[in-house]
Structure formats: C-alpha cells, structure tokens
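Final report, closing paragraph on structural work. Over the funding period we assembled a curated collection of sequence-structure pairs, and we close with a single example.
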Amino acid sequence: MRTLKTMILASAAVLTLSAPVLAADAVVEQAPAPEAVVEAPVSDWSGAYLGAYGGYGWNKHKTEEGNIDADGFKGGAYGGYNFQNGQFVYGGEADLGYSGGDDTSNGIKAKQGVEGSVRARAGIDLNPVLLYGTGGLAVTNSKLESATGSDSNTHIGWTAGAGAEAKITQNIVGRLEYRYSDYGRKDYDLGGVDDVSSKLTTNEVRVGVGYKF
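Its predicted structure, as stored:
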C-alpha cells in the first residue's frame, strides 16, 4: 500500500512539473499583422475657379523687312473648371487679357492688343502643389503702322505651356505659368505697293492668383 501511495504522489508531482512545459508547447505563435498601407495625402482641386494674372511677353513679328520685337507687360483674367481622379487633375480653362507690347523696326511699328485662349489642362497633384500642362486655341489682335498707313489683324493660332499652382489657403491658389503661342501669318495693308506679311509668335511668363469655389 505504501508503495502504491508513493507511486501516485510521484506521478502527481511529475504531472504538476510538466504542466507549464506542455502549456508552453501548446501556445501557437501568431503571424505579425500586416502593416497598414499609408496613402499619400491628396489635395482637392475639383470645381470652378477664377483668377487674375500679370506677366511679360516676348512678341515677335517676322516680316520680310526684318523682325519686330513688340515685347511688353500684360495682364488679364482667367477661369476654368477642374475634375479630379485621385492625383490626376484635368479640366478646361479660358483667359482674356491685354498685351501692352510695342516696338519699331525698319520703319514699321508693331503694337499688341487684346488676347485670349481656350485650353485643356491636365496635371498631377503633389499636395499642396499641382503641376500641369496646357494647350489649345489662342487669339490675339495686332496692329502694324508705317509712314504710309496702318492696319490691324486678328491672329488665330495655338498655344501650349506648363505651370505650377500652390494652395496659399484652402481656397486661394497662386500660380506660375509659361506659354508659347504661334498665331500664324497675316498680311497687313500699310498703303504701300505690297502688303506686309507678318508671322506672329510669343513667349510669355505669367504669375496669377485665383479663388477656388
């Protein structure tokens, strides 16, 4: 009887000592939770906007008599509407302004005037900056004068450029833009024997401030 009691106590002791080891072996290691994907913050550029711009234009009339560089300051207003899909921003924009450039060369004076464009825009949001490209139809009025007469023409051509916008506040947006425009060739009747044929191109830099509704 004593031997049986001793064996029961010894077995109980072994079971007691083995329980923590068995419990440890029973613990199943959990796989680490996947790290959360942090998406880049996106700024909201969608909706309508209006703004005003000022800048400088290098306006070149190419004639048979030589080039006339009617460079000068310009200013005007712009407005448009943006759509947005993630970081991709696209839409349309129009502008209307006035160029004060003028110059005289080889007895011919060139003066710029009212100008405008209707364009498409597309860009990438880099919060809080929007980088974009733009292109479309451009129209401008120009006048040539000489000792024998003067004539005005409306040039219709194309324009393309690129720019950057940055949010100053949630609704106030500043921009810097470069544009190149080719207005084609027009003939001017200055009262001489032959008309003066002029091809007009412009390079310009604009700075603007707009309000996003």
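Residues 49-212 form a domain with the Porin fold (CATH 2.40.160.20). The helical segments are 2-26. We thank the funder for supporting this effort.
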